[in-house]
Structure to design on (136 residues):
């Protein structure tokens, strides 16, 4: 979905990587104009998660969910290894994902310590859920 200023992607979302990814996928979401429609789930996913493509360390929490306990670096290293091992195991398989609502995900992002992530959550919410956006 493009904004009133004609921007297809939110600030911080790497355009070349998104264009390359969607260009290689079936459906030609960008070329057909479907990506620019307000109801585009492809635009929602690209804008919500594309922000983290070059910010991998930002996807790791500083504290354990629901607590103020810090996540130690060893836990982060273990998690990275687990994710890499999982990726190898399912490579080429059909993967079943566990659901998480966008509103819950955006609420979580809006509560992290990193201002860029909070701002991104607010921008995604304002663009894709007008009138129901996150508070300021």
């Amino acid at each position: 979905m493009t904004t009133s200023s004609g921007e297809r992607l939110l600030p911080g979302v790497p355009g070349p990587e998104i264009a390359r990814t969607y260009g290689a996928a079936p459906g030609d979401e960008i070329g057909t104009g479907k990506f620019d429609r307000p109801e585009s789930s492809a635009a929602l996913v690209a804008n919500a998660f594309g922000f983290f493509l070059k910010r991998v360390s930002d996807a790791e929490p500083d504290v354990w969910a629901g607590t103020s306990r810090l996540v130690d670096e060893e836990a982060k290293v273990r998690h990275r290894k687990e994710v890499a091992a999982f990726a190898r195991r399912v490579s080429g398989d059909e993967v079943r994902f566990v659901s998480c609502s966008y509103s819950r995900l955006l609420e979580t992002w809006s509560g992290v310590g990193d201002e860029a992530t909070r701002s991104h959550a607010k921008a995604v919410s304002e663009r894709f859920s007008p009138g129901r956006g996150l508070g300021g």
Notes: The chain has a mean pLDDT of 77. Residues 73-90 form the longest helix (18 residues). The helical segments are 15-24, 41-49, 73-90, 102-110, 115-128. The CA atoms of residues 45 and 102 lie 10 Å apart.
